[in-house]
Design a protein that fits this description.
The complex is a heterotrimer. By secondary structure, chain B is mostly helical. In chain B, 77% of the residues lie in helices and 1% in strands. Chain B has a single domain (66-286), classed as MetI-like (MetI-like fold), CATH 1.10.3720. Chain B has helices at residues 5-43, 47-50, 67-98, 101-116, 119-137, 144-168, 172-180, 185-214, 217-222, 240-247, 253-286, and strands spanning 54-55, 63-64. Chain B has a two-stranded antiparallel ribbon. By secondary structure, chain C is mainly alpha-helical. In chain C, strands 1-2 form a two-stranded antiparallel ribbon. Classes of the chains: A alpha/beta, B mainly alpha, C mainly alpha. At the B-C interface, helix 1, helix 3, helix 4, helix 5 and helix 6 of B face helix 1, helix 2, helix 4, helix 5 and helix 6 of C.
């Protein structure tokens, strides 16, 4: 008894001691290399990409640690502004009220409608999508599918994907009649894949990646144009958006180095690997 | 009487520890109030009930109605307690009066184990088993009904364990008297045992209710999280707790403040229930 | 506290007179069916839930699962970093709650006999604290530890939030253990002219040890099961934490994330759930039995 108690106490004290020995100072340089810690928060569309790039970045700069957390573009922007995060992630253009922030595009992406892979409906017009999300069409048979009620999956407020979606379809967020509310892209995909009668919309990159790894969803074309990385890259897909890293105020050496790395050709394989379109500006 | 100096230090440090522990509740209340103030003054308390909907992050056009979430919390709690209350009490009766000693012990162990399973596991189980079953009945599956079932499952152990403790406190003389009168088992339990244990059973129900109101993860995972007042059991809903869990991550300014207001509301409900519970407990002790 | 009892009037003798009251026969049968039905329903629910977790989770568990880092958002790989983060959070929680809890329990049981005003205040506020929903602890922890004290999303913030949460259960069970120590011990110590502090360290704490350990285990169980209070305090970064100022993902949050946000994450969610449920069942089982043995032992010796 006594033994287990003392080892418990030891386990409790140990982490505290560890911290005391390892003070972390952001941005200090050793041997001309980079060191310190970066925290990224925001868009769940960008998070997997930022994480993969961060891993490669850490390999090259072993004294750097980069933490990535999701929460939606609004959180990325508010955390960057408040300083809770060093870099915010926002999968949309900055708005008029956000001009004090700086956006650094690291990739292009689009938003597309997704259905369960078994759904017989092959395409929907913009008007049909609008009617479904307004609750005017409530059964798949009204749009050429089987007789089954439609489960409308919508994104939670504060998500860039929702804003891009409502803007393209001319919908008012308040009028949408949804059956399920999801947060992250992955949750949207998981919800649609788990319910044969549902409809949702997500990042094309995430959707293509999932469909490619045997998740039971399919991507719908928009205005007859296939939803794919290729059509996003060529600019022909109608619902496109930039994936931005967002900073507030002066940019530290470490932030600059990471952002430049994200935009460089050295990570193009990671960008395309996650079905996004690399930015062309980089060398 | 001499007081040793080590003792004086001891007493004062113990007193300090208790003062810290005792004032935690006040600290929590302070922070909830502090963070809520912006929401109450800038949004206005009336809008929590009168706004047409919950659209908290649309700048000047934001709407802050908490009515759908309050309705969901009330509906899911009542539903869960209607199911779990009787089942829990009867399970305790089983353990106390029906089961042979060995079976009673085994059954108690099961109930205790159920009480220790974390809510996220209940939620996960509900998500993979109950939601598809409910979807067979009426889509979308993630619904008030799924939430009620998972919640009921979670609070049955709480109710059963406390109800058992209450039944055990029934004076043996009552039972002997009933037996001597030749009363049937049913009559004895309903006419003698239940009235005698009423306060204790009340405590069991109240604590079960408290757990249902405060539960977050399980309902978050199975309820669909739509912010509309439900019109049927198959409608998706979002409770107050789920609303906080879903939105605190990215809420700013008024939105964040309103989430703290809903936390404050939950806290007040709990304080009221604790008050009821204490009164019942005192009655149970006197009885 | 649970303790096994043999009813003075057993179930069999309780209903002995039912043949004499024939008008109640039907009601008696219906009631019996309801009682057995409830018990069966509870048992069935238990078997369904635990069976589902064990059967589906067993395949995922291996030594490698426990010792490798999660990969591809947790779909692949194991839970080593998650276990480390969970231990870290638990460590912080205990480091803070044990001294505070022990001190408060000693104060309540040894120094506030009768209707002491401070004792009453502490007790009442602990009763409320015990009922506060975990998400409200999460709100508080986020506002106080993460933002006001500037700890950010970190293992430290999570551990401190949990410490507040487990305090009531810890104090209540430690106090129960202390009160179960017969008064003779205290009187004898006083007769030997032991100081109060020596009496506590030498006599009271050793005598109450099983009760204290049980309380500790119950606290650990509650903390390990917690999810809602951690989402906004310790965060959910699934990498190996390097200090308590790093964010770390607890087991329960890992289950939540895999179940809700990761397509194809079910297999590892089941595996993680089995690990968590297994841990908790052991902890709670040991705790309950320690309490039972302890309490019944005391009653016999008293």
């Amino acid at each position: 008894m006594k033994h287990s108690l003392s080892s418990l106490l030891l386990a409790a004290v140990l982490p505290v001691a560890l911290v005391a020995c390892a003070p972390s100072e952001a941005g200090t340089t050793t041997d001309g290399g980079l060191s310190g810690k970066l925290t990224l928060t925001g868009s769940s569309t960008i998070a997997p990409l930022a994480l993969e790039i961060a891993k490669r970045f850490e390999e090259r700069h072993p004294d750097v640690r980069i933490d990535v957390q999701t929460g939606g573009s609004s959180r990325g922007i508010s955390d960057a502004r408040s300083g809770l995060a060093d870099i915010g992630m926002a999968s949309r253009r900055l708005k008029d009220g956000e001009i004090e922030l700086t956006a650094h595009a690291i990739a292009q992406d689009g938003v597309c409608m997704i259905l369960h892979a078994s759904n017989v409906v092959a395409s929907l017009t913009d008007d049909q999508v609008r009617a479904i999300y307004l609750g005017e069409i409530e059964n798949w048979s009204e749009v050429g599918g089987e007789d089954a009620p439609i489960t409308v999956v919508n994104k939670a407020a504060g998500r860039a994907t929702l804003e891009v979606f409502t803007k393209h379809f001319g919908l008012d967020e308040k009028e949408i009649q949804a059956d399920v509310i999801v947060g992250d892209n992955e949750q949207g995909i998981k919800t649609v894949a788990g319910n044969p009668d549902s409809i949702g919309y997500v990042s094309i990159g995430t959707a293509e990646y999932s469909a490619g790894s045997d998740v039971a969803i399919k991507l719908l074309p928009a205005n007859g144009i296939t939803a794919s990385t290729a059509s996003v890259g060529s600019g022909s897909f109608p619902i496109g958006r930039p994936l931005n890293l967002v900073t507030f105020g002066e940019v530290s050496k470490l932030q600059r180095a990471y952002i430049d790395f994200c935009r460089s050709a050295e990570v193009h394989d990671l960008v395309t690997g996650l079905y996004f379109v690399p930015v062309r500006t980089a060398q | 009487m001499k007081v040793k100096s080590t003792d004086r230090i001891l007493v004062w440090s113990l007193r300090a520890a208790s003062a810290t522990a005792g004032s935690l509740v006040l600290l929590i209340l302070c922070f909830l109030v502090l963070e809520s103030v912006e929401g109450i003054t800038r949004v206005g308390a009336g809008r929590f009930l009168n706004d047409p909907g919950w659209h908290p992050s649309q700048g000047a056009e934001s709407e802050f109605s908490l009515v759908p979430m309050i309705a969901a919390t009330i509906a899911s709690t009542i539903g869960a307690i209607l199911l779990a209350g009787p089942v829990g009490v009867l399970a305790a009766v089983f353990c106390r009066f029906y089961a042979p000693p060995k079976l009673a012990r085994a059954f108690r162990s099961i109930v205790e184990l159920l009480a220790g399973i974390p809510s996220v596991v209940y939620g996960f189980w509900g998500l993979v088993t109950l939601v598809p079953l409910v979807r067979e009945l009426a889509p979308p599956g993630a619904s008030l009904l799924a939430g009620i079932l998972v919640l009921a499952m979670m609070i049955v152990p709480t109710v059963a364990l406390l109800a058992f403790a209450a039944l055990k406190n029934v004076p043996p003389g009552h039972l002997e008297g009933a037996t001597a009168l030749g009363l049937s088992r049913w009559t004895t339990i309903v006419k003698v045992v239940f009235p005698s244990a009423a306060s204790g059973l009340g405590v069991a129900i109240v604590l079960g209710t408290m757990r249902a109101i405060g539960e977050t993860m399980a309902v978050l995972m199975v309820c669909g999280n739509i912010t509309k007042v439900p019109s049927s059991l198959f409608d998706p809903v979002r409770t107050l707790t789920a609303n906080i869990a879903l939105e605190l991550g990215y809420a700013t300014q008024e939105h964040r403040a309103v989430l703290f207001v809903s936390g404050l509301a939950l806290m007040i409900m709990i304080v009221l229930l604790v008050f009821v519970q204490e009164r019942l407990q005192r009655r149970a002790r006197l009885a | 506290m649970p303790e096994p009892t043999r009813p003075l009037v057993s179930g069999a003798t309780l209903g002995a007179g039912r043949h004499g009251a024939s008008q109640n026969n039907l009601a008696d049968t219906v009631f019996g069916v309801l009682v057995w039905g409830s018990a069966l329903a509870v048992t069935a629910g238990f078997l369904w839930l635990v069976g589902e977790i064990v059967v589906s989770g067993f395949g995922a568990i291996s030594w490698e699962f426990l010792t490798s880092e999660p990969a591809s958002s947790g779909r692949a790989g194991g839970i080593s970093t998650i276990l480390v983060a969970t231990l870290g959070i638990l460590g912080i929680c205990l480091a803070v709650s044990i001294p505070l809890g022990l001190g408060t329990a000693l104060f309540l049981s040894e120094f506030s006999q009768g209707e002491n005003r401070m004792g009453r205040f502490v007790r009442a506020s602990l009763d409320v604290l015990a009922g506060v929903p975990s998400i409200v602890f999460g709100l508080f922890g986020n506002a106080f530890f993460c933002v006001a004290l500037g700890f950010g999303f970190s293992i430290l913030s999570g551990g401190l939030t949990l410490a507040c949460m487990v305090l009531p259960i810890l104090i209540r069970s430690i106090e129960l253990g202390l009160r179960a120590v017969p008064n003779d011990y205290r009187v004898a110590a006083a007769a030997l002219d032991l100081s109060k502090s020596r009496m506590i360290v030498r006599v009271l704490l050793p005598a109450a040890a099983p009760g204290l350990i049980a309380g500790l285990l119950l606290g650990i169980g509650r903390a390990t099961a917690e999810t809602a209070a951690l989402i906004f305090t310790s965060g959910y970064v699934d990498r190996m934490p390097e200090s308590v100022f790093d964010s770390g993902r607890a087991l329960s949050i890992h289950i939540y994330d895999l179940a809700m946000n990761v397509p194809g994450g079910e297999a590892n969610a089941y595996g993680t759930a089995l690990v968590l449920v297994g841990l908790l069942l052991v902890i709670n089982f040991v705790a309950t039995h320690l309490v039972e043995r302890f309490v019944s032992g005391r009653i016999q010796s008293a």
